[in-house]
Specification:
The complex is a heterodimer of chains A (about 250) and B (about 260). With about 250 residues, chain A is of the alpha/beta class. Chain A is about 35% helix and about 25% strand. Chain A folds into 2 domains: about 160 residues, Rossmann fold; about 60 residues, no CATH class. Chain A is built from 7 helices and 9 strands. In chain A, strands 5-6-7-3-8-9 form a 6-stranded mixed sheet, with helices on both faces. Chain A has a 3-stranded antiparallel sheet with strand order 2-1-4, covered by helices on one side. In chain A, a hairpin with a 5-residue loop joins β1 and β2. Chain B has a domain of about 150 residues: Orthogonal Bundle (MetI-like fold). Chain B is mainly α and about 260 residues long. The two termini of chain B are about 40 Å apart. Chain B has 10 helices and no strands. The chains are: A alpha/beta (about 250), B mainly alpha (about 260).
Chain lengths: ~250, ~260
Amino acid sequence: MAGPLLGLHGIARRFPGGVEALRGIDLAVQAGDFIALLGPSGCGKSTLLRLIAGLDRPDAGSITWHQAAPAPGEIGFVFQDATLLPWASAADNVWLPLRLRGIGREAARHDVAAALARVGLAGFEHARPAQLSGGMRMRVSLARALVGRPRLLLMDEPFAALDEFTRHGVQEDLLRLWTQIGCTVLFVTHSIYEAAFLARRIVLMSPRPGRISGEIANDLPPLPSSRTDPRHGELVARITAALRPALAA
Amino acid sequence: MSNPVPGRTVPGWAPWGFALLALAIWEGLVRALGVPVFILPGPVAIIAAFLADPLGLAQALASTLAVTAAALAAAAALGTALAALMAASPWARAAIQPWAVVLQVTPIVAIAPLIIIWIDQPFASLVVCATIVAFFPVFSATAAGLAATPRDLRDLFALNGAGAWDELVLLRLPAALPFFLSGLRISGGLALVGAVVAEFVAGSGGFASGLAYRILEAGYRLQIPRMFAALVLLSLAGLAINAGLGWVERRALADR
């Protein structure tokens, strides 16, 4: 289902106390896009994600949904921490979004098991978050975000707290899931390597106030092998060069 | 200088050994100095006083524990309900918070006589007094727990269209459970203290069956060893309540 999904027009957000988080944000999101919002901390990336999710309201500008506005559960959100319910099993954590929409445990069982299997956690249904590693907890969080087949998946620096090797693993899983499921992803990160590996469109942001300073397309195939492709290194170099003015400011 | 060797554990009998030593010194001093039992009885005299009437003292303990348990249950129910109300509405928070503090700082000995006069039924009046003493820790801990729900999880509930009731039952209450349980542990000890204080104030005009009443009675009759035996039972009851609630806490949070 290609075509425009969502448009941001002149979004601005100023927080009480006068901090200008975002100014004049324009962005057109196509269905099936994988967009990275890349920039240093303080450039309003997370604020933008919260605005799109409807968790916050812009002070100026508008957000246009080209198809119907998303119903509850049609936006998947993955936070920086796994934010699982510590008292619930992995399966019950993945069930949660369906449960809140009135789907019982039995009715959800198949979807929950499938979502856990997709992230490589088949057999871990009954494990508590405390019994899982950081990478596995993040995978449960990913399964929870995907179980309701969201039209839009918002991810807020989800892998920043993981070690390098675990991070590579979940990045490759995410890329595989994106090619399989074909949902639209907006991925906030401050890692140039992560943005260059995952996203098809890399949107560069600069801080104070947060605004979009450019966009770079990624033409490499969405495959794990791209990580060691020399063109990946070239892409990282191009992004780095494009970000330098923002860093100097 | 001898530092403990890392990895070598202290033997489990250490506190009991120390207690036994202290009791032996106490008994030895009382005997050596010839202190009369109506000033300070030794451990042997106290144990003898307990063995003289174990059933009577045990019944008194059961009576005090009944008041304590009822007060703790009432404090937990009331505290959780009011904390949930405060979490649900800023209006309720503004309305309740100051009165909860007033309740906390009011000395129970000052208002217990009034409560005992107002409430005819002795058991109920004791429970009300003990509930007032026990209420605050479990209430404030639960309120803090309900207010400390991580923002990301609340956002997740909002994104999935959760109502206030779903959020309370599926997220806020379970997230507040560790806070509630640690508050409950403090309230458990206070419920016992409250029950004893209320019995003291009520005196012979009250229920006249609890351990505090036995302490008063023994004091009037100069049965100091019996008074001490009742005191020891109270201390043991307090320790047992604390340990029991600690066990519940560990069990309930074991798999988090």
